[in-house]
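Researcher: Good morning. I'm working through a list of sequences from a screen, and I'd like to move beyond sequence-only analysis. For each chain I'm collecting a predicted structure so we can compare shapes side by side. This is the next one on the list. No need for commentary yet; just the structure.
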Amino acid sequence: MTNNDFVSQINELIRDGNFVLSTTIWSNNDSSYVGEKYPAWLTSIRTYMNNRFSNSASYYLEEITNIGNRTEGGSLMSSVNTVLEILYKFRDQVESEIIKPDLESFPSKSKFKKPKIFISHSSKDIKYIEVFVEMLKKMGLRPEHLFCSSISGYGITFSKNIYDYLFNEFEEHDLYIIYMLSKDFYNSADCLNEMGVTWALKIEYGAILIPPWDFKNVVGAIDKEKISFKLDDTDKRKSKLNDLKNIIINKLGFQNLNESVWEDDKTKFIESVDKIYNENLAVKSANRRIAKDNRIKH
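Model: Good morning. Structure tokens for this chain:
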């Protein structure tokens, strides 16, 4: 890569920051609301600097980390602008070659990357994740084909940092990320940071909405055009699961699956999803009744 390539990459981070400014919903006080795009953008910057420039970017990395930690009311808008100012200075020093990238951190263009599927999810959605991964396992996916942190044997090695691990996975594998989007996903700092790393490294991805999450709830660094389907969409989910199956087998280089077996596994997965959804609804309904009874008693 040439020096101009690095400058172009930093310019892309700057464009992403301006996009965050223009699209994040700010409160009436200008800055008390932390939009989902903001932590994803910060993570993309940290990941890029840490893994592409190593110690030569330590000063800027520390400055951005300190600014990024200030999310109390009244400071967020100015923090975004300050981070942008730091990025401009960083870009200028890279352009003038005062700061030089760590070329050894880049994989060789000739290096073959093994394909792998990465499931980005909240552990609170574990029931849906378990049946989804079970379907993938029946397709023939093994630990060398699949990463899912909540499933034994398919997760991260103990004591390793998730972001370093994801970057290393990118170095060694041609990743395809499947986001399992839900309210709990967006309430998870880890999930948003994974989104930021994916954004920074420009990894290919798709997304599935876990009920009752809807398209209108999707924000952050997710391109809504890349959302595959909603798990409770009875009209489209069968065909969309077929599309996802084709993406996965093409990505991993699998031979065509036995279609009759696949149809059976897909049907079982859908039945499991509906069962989980109905059980969750029943629990919520029971909790509402208990809460109502308690209010009446008091």
